[in-house]
Design a protein that fits this description.
- Helices cover about 0% and strands about 50% of the residues.
- It starts with a strand and ends with a strand.
- With about 210 residues, the chain is mostly beta strands.
- It has no helices and 21 strands.
- The strands form six sheets. Strands 1-2-3-4 form a four-stranded antiparallel beta sheet, with no helix packed on it.
Length: about 210
């Protein structure tokens, strides 16, 4: 799950040994201009949807346990504890808030999708099975809901107004015997197009939906 640095000059990603699911992972960065990748002195805990994300100010937010996390500044190596972080964060485009999903397996929160400001309490915006989620450049939160028939529903949660269905019947199991290989998607910066990874990748125009 790669992440861009705010200035677009570096890529951040996690790396772990084979067959190490459930263990900590090394977080690394590599400059686009060339050069060796660098392992950062942090360990993201159990990356499922992703290891975390990078704030607009360049700090990295990631989980260090099932329920907590920390900010890490790669420029100064300073850390700031985040005692309540029960999901892998993904920042909005404006950097003012982040979303995280909870699987609801033995934790204190119900399964679903949550949104939190940088400082303040998070709130649940969807109750159910979340496969993948991302932000659009317009501030809408998009997520794929899992269904028992293994065909998902893509939803849009706007900044104001009720959430709406974008696409239906999206396959989200890439390998029938391995539920860890789930469909991912991303929104084009123009806010109109979406690319969806499933049994095969395709692009859809969501501008008029």
């Amino acid at each position: 799950y790669p992440r861009w640095s705010p200035d677009g000059l570096e890529l951040y990603f996690y790396s772990r040994a084979a067959q190490s699911l459930g263990a900590s992972a090394d977080l690394r960065r590599v400059p686009l201009a060339g050069g060796a990748q660098q392992a950062l002195p942090v360990q993201a805990w159990f990356p499922f949807w992703g290891w975390g994300d990078i704030a607009k100010d360049g700090r990295i937010l990631y989980r260090t346990s099932e329920s907590s996390g920390e900010f890490f500044d790669p420029r100064t190596n300073q850390r700031e504890s985040v005692p309540d972080l029960p999901g892998d964060p993904l920042f909005s485009d404006d950097g003012k808030s982040f979303a995280f999903a909870v699987r609801g397996v033995g934790g204190k929160l119900k399964a679903g999708l949550y949104v939190s400001p940088l400082a303040g309490a998070y709130k649940q915006v969807f109750d159910g099975w979340v496969i993948w989620y991302t932000w659009s450049s317009t501030g809408d939160l998009m997520f794929l809901e899992g269904r028992p028939n293994l065909k998902g529903i893509l939803w849009r949660i706007p900044q104001a107004g009720p959430m709406t269905v974008v696409l239906k019947e999206l396959a989200f199991i890439r390998r029938p015997i391995d539920i860890l290989w789930l469909t991912r998607f991303d929104i084009h910066p123009d806010g109109r197009r979406i690319v969806v990874e499933g049994l095969e990748s395709f692009e859809a125009d969501i501008g008029m939906i």
